[in-house]
Amino acid sequence: MAYVDWMIRGPEIGMCNCDWGCPCQFNAPPTRGNCRAVAGLRVDEGHFGDVRLDGLKAVAILAWPGAIHEGHGEVLPIVDERASPEQRGALLTILGGEETEEFATIFNVVKATTETVHEPLFLPIEFEADEESRTGRVSIPGILEASAEPIRNPVTGAEHRAKVMLPYGFEYTEAEYASSNVKTTGTVEHDWTSRHAHFCMLHLGPYGIIH
């Protein structure tokens, strides 16, 4: 099947309510029996057909009542208010898992396990990510405040570094693991501290990770 030619490359911070490490990455059930998550990204370089996406940001606020693969999830997509109508449509198509080979990207996996897609919002998004230091933040006034920081040794307080490689991953092949603090209000509500986060560089197209 032929898909629209698209590509996005840029940093992502993924945060969820599981303990550090996120059992999903190892085919294990979620720490607390359900999955609640926030993912923020910035497109440093990207296109959807002839529509350029460089510099735009996007966020997804997600929740599943059980493990992700059990389905029945919900997602609230939020797109950079600076995006033109054409760019908004392009980003929502990519983030919605459309124009993508089945299960080739994290976006298509979310599509396959989600039954409720809330009306998208178009708002100002603040996004900062430093993978090397494992520090970052995602902020949408009135909707989301999220930050990530290094995991720390419980005895000494020293920074603990963990890097995970997934050679056959559909989101990333390598990520720095960290600790997240998340508070959302509105359609999908989250509230946690000192839970899982990961920093990675997305480089995706309709057939998955671009190497």
Keywords:
211 residues, 15-stranded mixed beta sheet, 2 helices, globular
Can you walk me through this structure?
- This protein has a 15-stranded mixed beta sheet that branches. It has a two-stranded antiparallel sheet with strand order 12-13.
- The mean pLDDT is 97.
- Strand 9 and strand 10 form a beta hairpin.
- It is mainly beta.
- The two termini are 21 Å apart.
- The longest helix is centred in the middle third of the chain and has 11 residues.
- 9% of the residues lie in helices and 48% in strands.
- The relative contact order is 0.22.
Task: Give the topology.
Blueprint: E1 6-16, E2 35-42, E3 45-48, E4 51-52, E5 57-64, E6 73-80, H1 85-95, H2 106-113, E7 114-117, E8 121-123, E9 126-130, E10 135-140, E11 144-149, E12 151-152, E13 159-160, E14 162-165, E15 174-184, E16 191-205, E17 208-209
Parallel strand pairs: 6-7, 6-8
Antiparallel strand pairs: 1-2, 1-3, 1-16, 2-5, 3-4, 5-6, 9-10, 10-11, 11-15, 12-13, 14-15, 15-16, 16-17
Shape descriptor: globular
Q: Number of DSSP strands?
A: 17
Number of helices: 2
Distance between the termini: 21 Å
Mean pLDDT: 97
SSE arrangement, N to C: EEEEEEHHEEEEEEEEEEE
Q: Give the low-confidence spans.
A: none
> What share of residues is helical?
under 10%
